[in-house]
TrEMBL record:
One of its GO terms (molecular function) is heme binding. The chain crosses the membrane at residues 16-36. Keywords: Membrane, Transmembrane, Transmembrane helix. It comes from Cellulophaga algicola (strain DSM 14237 / IC166 / ACAM 630). This is Monoheme cytochrome c, putative.
């Protein structure tokens, strides 16, 4: 092998080496670009939240907002005594435990007595009656979609 040949070969070698380095360098740049972009966008704009994340209401949010007749925070139906029920019936368990039940006034009272005897529910005092009225009005047992047909009705004419 002549000197010239050797020289040509080493030039070629350097050339290849430089090309590989260049490609590698560009590769590193691309990876850096995406990781930095990911890091900045995901932490500042849209933080990754757990699937069961619930937004905690801030001071400015209206905690007792009512929309379409429903107390938004708890799901209770709007009505007289609503706030008493919210204040007395949602600190130990979810409001759902209340709203998914349908009972007569007596049964609601029995449930309250049971909680007072076994679950440390406090004496509701003067609030007991309005609470019971609210519960037995809006969470009454006979809320079937449609009433039964009337039978044996004696119709009479309305007089002025
Ligand atoms: C001091 C805590 C506490 C308060 C306040 C409280 N409860 Fe309860 N309540 C409980 C516990 C504990 C249970 C049982 C929960 C369970 O079974 O997981 C319960 C269960 C219930 C149940 C289900 C009963 C059943 O037979 O399954 C209803 C309905 C209910 N509560 C309604 C109310 C209402 C209405 C109020 C407001 C007057 C209220 N709770 C306030 C502690 C409380």
């Amino acid at each position: 092998m002549g000197v010239e040949e050797k020289f040509k070969q080493s030039v070629k070698g350097i050339h290849t080496l430089l090309t590989i380095l260049l490609i590698g360098f560009i590769g590193v740049l691309i990876i850096l670009f995406f990781t930095i972009k990911d890091a900045t966008t995901s932490t500042t704009n849209s933080p990754v939240l757990p699937p069961d994340y619930v937004e905690v209401p801030t001071q400015e949010d209206d905690l007792d907002k009512i929309e379409n007749g429903i107390h938004v925070r708890t799901g209770f139906v709007e009505g007289e005594g609503l706030l008493l029920v919210v204040q007395n019936c949602t600190s130990c368990h979810s409001a759902k435990l209340v709203t998914q039940n349908r009972m007569s006034k007596e049964k609601w009272l029995a449930t309250i007595r049971w909680m007072q005897e076994t679950q440390n529910l406090w004496d509701l005092g003067v609030n007991e009656e309005p609470i019971l009225n609210y519960l037995s009005t809006y969470y009454a047992p006979n809320q079937i979609g449609r009433r039964a047909n009337l039978e044996n009705v004696e119709w009479y004419e309305l007089k002025e």
